[in-house]
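Mods, move this if it's the wrong board.
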Amino acid sequence: MDRYSVSQLARISGVSIRTLHHYDKIGLLKPSYRAESNYRYYGEAELHRLQQVLFFKELGFPLKEITPILDDPEFDRVRALRIQRIQLLKQQERLQTLLNTIDKTIQNAEEEKTMNEEELYDGFSEEEREAWKEVEGKYELEVVQEARSNAKALGREGIEGVQAEMENIARQMAQLLGTPVHSEEVISLMKRQHEANEAFYKTSGEMFKGLGEMYVSDQRFTQFYDKYAPGTAEFMRDAMAYYADHVLN
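Not the wrong board. Structure tokens:
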């Protein structure tokens, strides 16, 4: 039976040694054998389990949700792989649509042509479009115009960058569930959240607080945040309210 040291597994998988040590500590990926020197060694089963961890992470699952899934006696790796393949194909299709939109946007910008709204936002789901239209409806016309102007200036690549930043913040907030909203980690994430939002329009404390409330009151936003871990949307609301009251105001 082949055994892999932690450094070998790190090289094979691309996962850092520090991360593998963390996975061991939280029970996500335990070594199959531990030598008297306390060196960790992994077998084939652990290699397959790590592959599952990476697939689930790629699909947006927080670590705290992956562990019980893999530890379930009814877990079927082949079935999971088939489902993951379907989900990744859907992501691939969406990313290809977004790439096509980027190419079209670049071409039109270079040729100084104007794109219509459908072309400009092709690749974003109807739910995302409708939700943001309703968000726009809650603000003054000047704010909406500022947001649209900045969005056009950012271009598709810039907008995707802001969206990716917000998704990263959501993932990290999910991992911090239960942490006090006045902690340095949470305040740092809220600073990034506020900066990401200001890429579109100047966001006062009151507006930032209102956005947090909407993450809980509007199920579409709640689902976006709670997919990382149940309760993340409420955590975002509370953290944004604290940041608005104690930092922005």
